[in-house]
Amino acid sequence: MKTSIATVSISGTLREKLPAIAAAGFDGIEIFEQDFITSDLSPREVGQMVRDHGLIISLFQPFRDFETLPEPLRSRALARAERKFDLMAELGAPLMLVCSSVHPAALGGIDRAADDLRALGDLAASRGLRLGYEALAWGRHVSDHRDAWEIVRRADHPAVGLILDSFHTLGRGIETDSIRSIPGDRIFFVQLADAPAIPMDLLYWSRHFRNMPGEGDLDVTRFLRSVLATGYDGTLSLEIFNDQFRQGLPMGVARDGYRSLVAALDAVRRAEPTLAVDLPAFPPPAAADGVEFVEFATAPDEAAALAAALAQAGFTRAGHHVSKPVDLWRQGGINILVNTSAEGFAHAAYLSHGTTVAEIAIRVPDAAACFTRARALGAQVHEAAVEATELTIPAIRGVGGSMLRLLDAGENLGRIWDIDFDAGPGAFAGAGLTRIDHIAQTMGPDEILSWSLFYGTLLDAAPAPLVDVADPDGLVKSRAIRSGGLRVTLNGTSAHRTLAGRFHQDSFGAAVQHLAFATDDIFASAARLADLGFDALPMGDNYYDDLLARHGLDPTFAARLKAAHVLYDRDEAGGEFFQLYGNARPDGLFFEVCERRGGYDGYGAPNAPFRIAAQKRRLRPYGMPAR
Ligand SMILES: O=C(O)c1ccc(O)c(O)c1
Ligand SMILES: [Mg+2]
C-alpha cells in the first residue's frame, strides 16, 4: 500500500514541498495542476525533480467540467483532455483525476456520463494512462460516490475507475457501507481528509477547513474500513485544503499528515482485525492514568517566588534530588519538581522560555509500549542526559520542545522517588489538593490541531471539539483532550493581547500556562488556601448575579461561592464544577483549584471569559497595559 499527499496540502513551491513530503515518509504525491503551472520548470524537469526526491507522481489533478457537455463543448473538453494527457506523459503521472462537473451547460444523465468517460478512457488507454472519476460533494449532477460508481460501472472500460474522497462522502453524510460492495480493483485512488463539524456551504468547507484524519470530526476510520474491505490495495493519499496548512511550515504539516495516515490505518486494523492492513505492528493506544509529576525549570533567583507560590497553594517541600539542584514539592498525589540546574535540558528550557514547565511525566499502563507507539507515529525521542545512579525513563518531545516522560506502575515508578529523591514516605495533606486535574498548554493558533493529533494518536484519547473562548482582547481557540485520568487543554490564538497570546509571546513559544489541581472539597480547600495566603482571584458581583439567574441558585449558596472566590458551572445532567483561580504571575502562569461533582466532564468554559477579564484587571488595574 502506497502513501501519498496532494501538493495542495503543503505550503510553498514545489521545491519546498517535495523535500518535506519525502522526509515525512510519503511514497508519492498528487500533483495539483496549479503547482505545476506556477513552476517555471518544464514538465520533464518537474517529473525528474519529484523522482530525485525518491517520490512518484501517483495522480495528476484536477481535470474539471468534462462529462455530459453538449457539442461543441464536448469536443473541446476532449481536446483539452488530450493536452493534459500529453502533459501527464511528460510528468510521468499515470492517473488523472476527473472530478464531477459543475459546468452550467452540463446535461447530466448517467449513461451520457458513462459514454463520455468511456471515450476519455480510450484516449487515456492509447497512451498507457488511466483516469479516475470522483464525485465532488457539490457536483452539478453527480455529488455522491454511489452515482459516480454507477457511471464508472457503466463506462465499463479498463482505463476508467472510481476515485473516492472521504470528504465528499462523509461531508454529505453519505453512509460508507455502500463502498464495501464496489470491487476493489475498480477503485483507482483513495483520498482521505477530515474536517471539523461546522455547518456551512460544502464547497467553502472543503476548500478551507479540511484537516488531517483524526484532527476533525468526520468518521474517517469508518470510511477507510469500508475502502479496505473491498480489497483495495492502491494508494492512500491525503488531500487537505486548509487555510492554516497553506501558510504553515511544510515540514510540520507533512509530518502531521504522515502521522495521521499511520494512525488511521492503525485504527482500522484494531476496529476490524480481519482487514489486511499493510502497516508494521506496534502497540495499541492506551488510556493514561494521570500525571506523576510536573517539573518547572527556573533559576536560583526566581525559585523563591515559585516556592512561595507553591507553599501558598498548600505544597510542602518534601525532598531533594540526590545529585541535582531539584526540589520535590508534594501535596496529596501531586508531585511538583523545581529544577534550578545551571546545565542540562531544564536549564536550556529556562534560558529559552523563562520559568517554565520543562517536563511532564504521565503514568501509562505500559511505558515501553507507549514509547514504541510514539516512535511508530513519528514522535521525536528526547535524549536527556541521565546520570549513572538515576533511572532511565523514556521521554519524547512534547509541546514547545518540553519533555513528555512515560512512566508505568512497574519498577521505575516505584523507585523514582526513592532512588532519585531523598523523599520520605510522609503524606502532605496541605490544602486538600489531591491530584492534577488538568494541564493547560498555550501555543500558537496553528499548533492546536498538531498537538491534538499528537495526544489523540499516542493515547487512547478523545479530543473534544474546538471551542472559542472570549478574552476581552480577542478570541482564543481551545480544545480539551482526555485520556483516562489525564486531561490536557490546548489553547491558541493570533490575538496577541489576550492572556494566552501574551503568554505565548512572553514565554517565547508554547508552554504550560496553568495547572489545575483537584480537590474533593472546594470550600474546605478555599478556606485552607486563604489561611496559607493563596492569592485567590476575586470575581465581581455581576458574575455572581448572573450565576444566580442562570442556574437558579439559592442566594445563600451564591453568597458562599462569592465569599470563597469560587466559580461555578453545571452541566445538562446536573454535574457540577467548582473553580478557584489564583492570580496570574507577571509572566502569565497561574494555578487553578477545582472540584468535579456528579460526573461533570468539562472545564468551566462558560466561566472562562469572566475569569480571564478578572485576571486581566489584576494584571493591569488602571486599564493600562502591564508592560
Ligand atoms: O475543490 C475542488 O474543486 C476539488 C478538486 C479536486 C478534488 O479531488 C477535490 O476533492 C476537490
Ligand atoms: Mg478529492
Automatic annotation (TrEMBL):
Residues 290-409, 435-596 form the VOC domain. Its EC number is 4.2.1.118. It catalyses: 3-dehydroshikimate = 3,4-dihydroxybenzoate + H2O. One of its GO terms (molecular function) is 3-dehydroshikimate dehydratase activity. Its cofactor is a divalent metal cation. It is an enzyme of class 4 (lyase). GO terms for biological process: 3,4-dihydroxybenzoate biosynthetic process. Keywords: Lyase, Metal-binding. Pathway: Aromatic compound metabolism; 3,4-dihydroxybenzoate biosynthesis. It comes from Paracoccus contaminans. PROSITE patterns: VOC. This is 3-dehydroshikimate dehydratase.
